[in-house]
Design brief:
By secondary structure, the protein is mainly alpha-helical. It is 75% helix and 0% strand.
Length: 508
């Protein structure tokens, strides 16, 4: 009798391989990605490398848009590998981009894991805040202002990681209750199979409520990030090129950042008052009662060991804020320090327990490297060069306004630091060879800085914090997909960009 392996037919293997391609993703998505991989070499052969590179950029954005159908890493990674294989970029070019952004990768890997070990104290603090402010508008404004202040001194990825950890904790508390699972039962908060009746309606309402707060928080990171030298990585790059210290950067950017901040807060008020673009969702009373009961239950069961663990987490959290605010070291190294302190003094010593903290960060870290490969292709093929040259050929008010808009548009599809570097390098060269004066140099630097920060909120791939939120485990829980994020970010993008354009024009 032939063995089981001998009975396997080649046709069956091909069918199985096709089934395994991109796993459980929808069939139409698999076909689309396969078509991309087939079409790209044809475009390269027929139309040349520049058009082929633009096509791959569009395909990459498609994979981000379909993040709820399939995590972007496998499909976007295939596109990046194909770009290298087709010679549109090189392994060395990708590595150079990774080296340039190494601090961001270290930040992502270690800081997100560090926040994981502080989640218990963060959940208690933010739950009390959410429950103390009953009016949704007041809560939304509090979230935007708090996140903006934190993002002015801390990295936006760190701030978003904290908010995601808190929102996931809140969601899991109610989802466990709605699923009628005891606190000591194993529970999967991604599975709604046991949620029925009114609990399902309340869960949907809670999802909408959390979507609102997360998008307000995301906008807050942009509002705060534009104001200070340490608010965004490209700010440091631009500040170094123009020789601005912390106070000088704040004062020079303030004529743009302050009006944008005011308009951003007014946008929050408008959205929560009108309910436009999916905002205005209220916290269901049933959910509020469950969260309040959870707070009381946890407080009643808190023993000396729990209290000691919370004290350690609070102390480490204070160190985290101080370390980032005063830039005691690179943010990623501070995150690693947080991991060491939080695990050593709370008894978390097993490899399994420590490893769980890295589960959320590493998929996004991989996706970020793929993104750097796309940026490397953009650089190697000079996709932005004609745009940069056309903008810098302008003069007067038109130059600054066009620079603001062009930097924002390019930042929507590429890395903010890369776009800022492309512009500020040429502007600095024009200053040093005497083409423009010092005053014009500084005004154009403001336009680049604010341009890469403000309009880029229009798309999830325009800001690392937005992309992190989109690809986080929280996004599918609260039904926050790419299109939903686009729709909810649109009013902020429109109003903040309009305010930024007006402020830049007024500066000249």
């Amino acid at each position: 009798m032939p063995s089981r392996s001998a009975m396997v037919r080649p046709g069956g293997v091909m069918v199985a391989a096709a089934h395994h391609f991109l796993g459980s993703s929808p069939r139409w998505y698999k076909l689309a990605v396969a078509a991309f991989l087939v079409v790209d070499p044809l475009v390269l052969g027929l139309a040349g490398p520049v058009l082929a590179a633009w096509v791959i950029v569009a395909q990459f954005i498609f994979t981000l848009a379909m993040s709820l159908a399939c995590h972007p890493l496998p499909s976007a990674g295939l596109l990046a590998l194909e770009a290298v294989a087709l010679g549109l970029t090189s392994p060395q070019g990708v590595f150079d981009e990774v080296q340039t952004n190494l601090s961001t990768l270290l930040l992502l890997v270690f800081m997100v894991a560090g926040v994981y070990f502080l989640r218990e104290s963060l959940l208690i603090a933010f739950t009390r805040l959410f429950l103390a402010i009953r009016h949704k508008l007041a809560l939304s404004l509090a979230v935007v202002v708090t996140v903006a202040l934190l993002s002015a001194f801390l990295d936006a990825l760190t701030v978003v990681a904290v908010i995601i950890a808190v929102a996931t904790g809140l969601y899991s508390v109610y989802h466990r209750f709605a699923s009628q699972r005891a606190s000591d039962d194993t529970h999967d908060h991604t599975d709604d199979a046991y949620v029925h009746g009114l609990a399902r309606a309340d869960l949907d309402g809670f999802r909408a409520f959390l979507r609102n707060l997360m998008m307000h928080a995301a906008a807050g990171t942009a509002l705060g990030g534009i104001t200070t030298l340490v608010g965004e990585p490209q700010n440091l790059l631009i500040g170094d090129a123009v020789a601005w210290d912390f106070p000088q950067f704040f004062l020079r950017v303030a004529p743009v950042s302050v009006p944008v901040m005011v308009v951003g807060l007014l946008t929050t008020v408008l959205l929560e008052t009108t309910g436009w673009f999916g905002y205005g969702a209220r916290l269901p009373e049933a959910v509020r009662r469950v969260l309040e009961d959870g707070v009381r239950t946890r407080a009643s069961h808190r023993d000396a060991g729990t209290t000691a663990r919370l004290v350690v987490q609070v102390v480490v959290a204070v160190f985290l804020v101080v370390g980032l605010a005063f830039h005691l070291a690179e943010a990623g190294l501070i995150g690693l320090t947080v991991i060491v302190l939080a695990t050593a003094f709370t008894g978390v010593v097993s490899e399994h327990a420590i490893g769980r903290a890295f589960q959320e960060a590493l998929p996004f870290a991989g996706l970020l490297v793929v993104f750097f490969a796309i940026v490397s292709m953009i650089d190697d093929q000079g996709l932005f060069t004609p745009i940069v040259q056309a903008v810098l050929a302008q003069t007067g008010t038109a130059q600054a306004v066009t620079l603001f808009g062009a930097a924002g548009a390019l930042s929507m599809v590429s890395d903010n630091v890369f776009v800022a570097s492309a512009y500020i390098t040429q502007i600095a060269a024009a200053f040093h060879d005497g083409t423009i004066g010092r005053e014009q140099f500084e005004l154009l630097a403001v336009a680049v800085s604010t341009g890469t920060n403000i309009p880029s909120v229009a798309t999830p791939n325009g800001q690392a914090a937005f992309l992190f939120l989109l690809t986080s485990p929280l996004a599918p829980l609260i039904r926050l997909g790419y299109v939903t994020m686009l729709r909810m970010a649109l009013p902020y993008a429109l109003t903040m960009t309009a305010a930024g354009v007006a402020a830049v024009a007024w500066l000249l």
